[in-house]
Known about the structure:
Largest sheet: 7 strands, mixed
Number of helices: 18
CATH architecture of one domain: 3-Layer(aba) Sandwich
CATH class of one domain: Alpha Beta
Radius of gyration: 35 Å
Distance between the termini: 31 Å
Strand content: 15-25%
Mean pLDDT: 81
CATH topology of one domain: Rossmann fold
CATH superfamily of one domain: HUPs
Low-confidence stretches: 1-48, 584-589, 596-606, 624-693
Amino acid sequence: MESLSKWKEALQLWRVNQPVHITDAASATQPSGMSGKTTAAEMRFEMGGKFGELPGAKIGEVVVRFPPEASGYLHIGHAKAALLNQHYRNIFEGRLILRFDDTNPSKEKEIYEESILSDLPRLGVCWDVRSHTSDHFELLLKLCEQMIRDGKAYVDNTDGETMKAQRESRTPSVCRDNSVEKNLAWWEEMKKATEFGLQCCVRAKIDMNSNNGALRDPTIYRCKKESHVRTGNKYNVYPLYDFACPIVDSVEGVTHALRTSEYNDRNDQYAWMCQAVGLRCPMVIDYSRLALQNTLLSKRKLTWFVEEGLVDGWDDPRMPTVSGILRRGMTAEGLRQFILAQGSSRSSAQMEWDKIWAFNKKVIDPVAPRYTGLLMDPTLPSSDGAPRGLVPVRIHGQSDFVEKQVPIHPKNEHLGDRGILLGPLIFIEHADAVCLKQGENVTLINWGNCRVLNVHQTGQFVSGVDVELNLADTNYKKTPKITWLADPGPTGPALTPLSCVIYDHLLTKAVITKDDDFKLFINRNSKTEQCLLGDHGLRFLKKGDIIQLQRRGYYICDAPYDPKCPATGHESPCVLIQIPEGTAKPDTTPDPGTSEPKGSARAKAKPDEKKEARKEGRNKWKLSSQLQQPTQSEGVVPTKSVQPVQSAANSSAIAANKETNFSESKSQAKKQTKLALEARKEVDFADWTSVKYNAKLQNSQRK
Length: 703
């Protein structure tokens, strides 16, 4: 027990002394009153996410911030930042500041700020304080002027291209050694936005020889004669983010500033700014930026998609914006679980969308009501008594209309029941009809088994089917499962016309590099529409409702059914958007006679074939091991093997066979090697268990 307690103390000491991913300069100015250990155990997420410790964090004293720029709509990358900050705020019972970074008057618009304020609550993000960087413009102005007086900043009129080249070559500007008086005079020109002042900027005087490019005299103020969305024409100079952010963080009481790892090189700069103006420096915590395959998060590039008409707007379900992914069926809880499952890791990698949608499926599957929707194939000839694209099935043994109560969800009784109509005539999809065989027993989902009496087929098209109810047979294990809808007749509850929209990625290439022109990889066929006929109950769906169409997948209602559209005066179908499930390849058409949509190839692999392959591999491995490792008696000296003499003709034939069979042998070798390893594991395990059993038996006999 004593050694165990010492081990625990050593482990706790090791955790406390672990290095934090912040710069030495930042750690030199830790926030006052923030001493003590961090309880990392409290920051473990139930889905397996790992969160780094917050140095010096105390319950009730942690202040974090989410600083979006109101120059565009929130996308999924912003969502990760917001949810991570919210998570730390909740864990430590602290405060979350929502601060709009409005330092660039040419980009900020009020409409973007309104959309951000609307999107964050939809993600479940609640802030304690709302502010703007522009609230501190007067303070930032005074601090910049003080830095000029202290010789820590200077005004530079070098053009942008030359300044960039000088920073790369580590060449100081000719303005770097100007007197304080000259710098202050030029500063006044900037504040007045004179012709000369518009050519100037203020640069921090740090170190032009630094290996860190962010420390080579970065620009901290610029002159812009533009109206600001909040301050109007009061100012002609505006601070840059790298100058304003650390100062406002300190002034507003932020204790821990969470930033993506792309800002890692600027952490020294962040600390230098606070030290230059004599302010406390918050702790900087890095985490990885969310990068997704087949996706662009650049505001400029996303704007191009909107302006080119390739999408229907910023809330298009193909867009990575918060409004777009929520419209496609992503739930706030599903996104939260995905983000927090990633934790605050600093490792960056291109992630697949399938992972996000898989989390979402776990959220919606237990509560999504089940309905039926049949695909109406417009390429099929019409059948008597059925809507175009569907096949009529006459039920022998059912003469009346009957309403049956079935569970809304087969595994969630709390959702209650719903009524379905049973009748003498039902409709099924043509894909299911062509698979039916006379005399076959099939299962009508939510009704029971029936026997196929006749299949009316002309060529490759089925025009009708006759079946006989066989409800006494309750064996559903090996029967094909069929979704269906009863013909309501002229007086029954009418079926619901559905328009189902399926979206794909906007880009055909998974990873777009810096050298790639993304316009060459545009997916021009990223939107598909299908016409379906659904249950009567689908007429009452509301916008945002999530359901499952049996054997087809999950859908979110984008536009409710309207019996008379005000614009056209005609019936308007219920518009459903398919929700991805996180499978390898989305496919909305189920296999005929099955109860689930198509899955990945791995899921379809036959278990019997796998067993036979493993068995064959084990046998071959045993045989090869016996041939390669013959047993020898003690004291017997192994002799050299004698090779038979081959003729020239035989040698050439053997060489030809080797050459022709090389590729086949190579592929077989890989497969057999894997199977042999599996067999070896089984044999080793069997040997190990037998040894353990014999030892245990001997011990029992001794006793």
